[in-house]
Design brief:
Elements lengths: L1 H18 L13 H4 L11 E10 L8 E13 L10 E13 L4 E15 L6 E16 L28 E15 L6 E9 L11 H4 L3 H4 L4 E11 L4 E12 L2 E15 L4 E13 L5 E14 L2 E10 L12 E10 L12
Antiparallel strand pairs: 1-2, 1-14, 2-3, 3-4, 4-5, 5-6, 6-7, 7-8, 8-9, 9-10, 10-11, 11-12, 12-13, 13-14
């Protein structure tokens, strides 16, 4: 029945949003660097980078899964007057993000501009401290046509009667700010270190469809909490063709805590063609508003580098939240990036 289907869809949507600590997230977090940390804008050894990433969840349960798509472009600009003594650079970029639950026509769109300054701490350009800031506009909308309520039941065969429910405006926008700091030490064929921290939603914008005066008394229930994130990634060369990268990423948003911990292997297949294979996996425990810290998913990832192209595929095998049909809410993620004028002499940001 449409009513029960609508309730199922809304429950799934709320479950996904709560698990993700209000914000959406990507398992291949380095494949969307501008979303992870504004300080990673322009953090690559090239001139420009174009990246896209797609994620869907609930495909085995819904006809139209919950989907997330992001596209970004950023540029690296050398600002040092003397390249022999200064390797400073600036980064400029733009990112677009779209979340949607087509079953209830609920959409979130975000567009943001990013800027970062990369201060070289050595004259060799193998150690950088980066500071970035991001200014964005968010927009949320919903189409009420696919929703039905109890008072619409005609008593016989469907929900065709009018409803007494009063709908709020179905569309609103808000401003948003994020800041981030990133540190990179990548001395060629030695142990490399990547670490950073970011704060998103600095202004904690209101995200209610109701007018501000209607929700002011319950302001904390309708604000987008600040998100604090931090990560550490090492890159250890096992030999001249194999690298291992252990990593950990954590973020806190309101009552929610999420941690990603695992590692990634990179196998160099063809040095001349620039071909490499990535294989990785990590686990994701979460803590939500119930204050319970439980394992949420195991993520498996594979990626290919070919010349200036990067292609990654990952799958989140959920460990909990079985549906009534006995199915788990897995998530598929696909990323694609192109690096323009890429030298790959110094790794300034992991790829997946």
């Amino acid at each position: 029945m449409r009513k029960h289907y609508g309730i199922t869809v809304l429950a799934l949507l709320l479950t996904i949003l709560s698990i993700q600590a209000q914000d959406t997230h990507f398992s291949q977090f380095y494949a969307s660097p501008l979303y992870l940390n504004p300080g990673l804008t322009g953090a690559f050894d090239g001139k420009y980078r174009i990246s896209t990433i797609y994620r869907d969840q609930g495909r085995n349960l819904l006809d139209e899964p919950y989907t997330t798509f992001s596209a970004a472009a950023d540029f690296r600009i050398d600002v040092g007057k003397n390249r022999k003594t200064s390797r400073d650079a600036a980064g400029l970029g733009m990112i677009f993000l779209n979340d949607r639950s087509s079953s209830v026509n609920f959409y979130t769109n975000t567009i943001a501009l990013s800027g970062a300054y990369h201060k070289s701490l050595t004259r060799y350009g193998d150690q950088f401290l980066s500071l970035g800031v991001q200014f964005g506009i968010g927009q949320r909308n919903i189409n009420y046509e696919n929703l039905t309520f109890e008072d619409q039941f005609n008593g016989q065969d469907g929900y065709t009667d009018p409803t007494a429910e009063v709908y709020p405006f179905n569309n609103f926008g808000y401003g948003d700010i994020a800041v981030g700091l990133n540190y990179t030490y990548s001395p060629g064929d030695k142990l490399a270190i990547f670490a950073g921290a970011a704060m998103h939603h600095v202004l904690e914008p209101q995200i209610s469809f109701y007018a501000r005066e209607e929700v002011e008394e319950r302001r904390n229930d309708n604000q987008l909490f600040r998100k604090y994130s931090a990560y550490v990634n090492l890159q250890y060369p096992i030999n001249n063709r194999v690298q291992f990268s252990p990593r950990i990423l954590g973020y806190i948003q309101g009552p929610h805590l999420t941690v990603n911990a695992g590692g990634n292997f990179r196998f160099l297949l063809d040095d001349i063609a620039g071909t490499a294979l990535h294989l990785g996996g990590w686990v994701r425990p979460v803590r939500n508003f119930t204050n319970r810290f439980t394992p949420d998913a195991v993520i498996l990832m594979t990626g290919i580098e070919y010349s200036n192209f990067l292609i990654g595929v990952s799958y989140d095998a959920r460990l909990g939240n079985l549906t009534t049909s006995g199915r788990r809410l897995g998530a598929l993620e696909i990323s694609l990036a192109f690096l323009g004028n890429y030298d790959n002499e110094t790794v300034l940001c992991p790829k997946f």
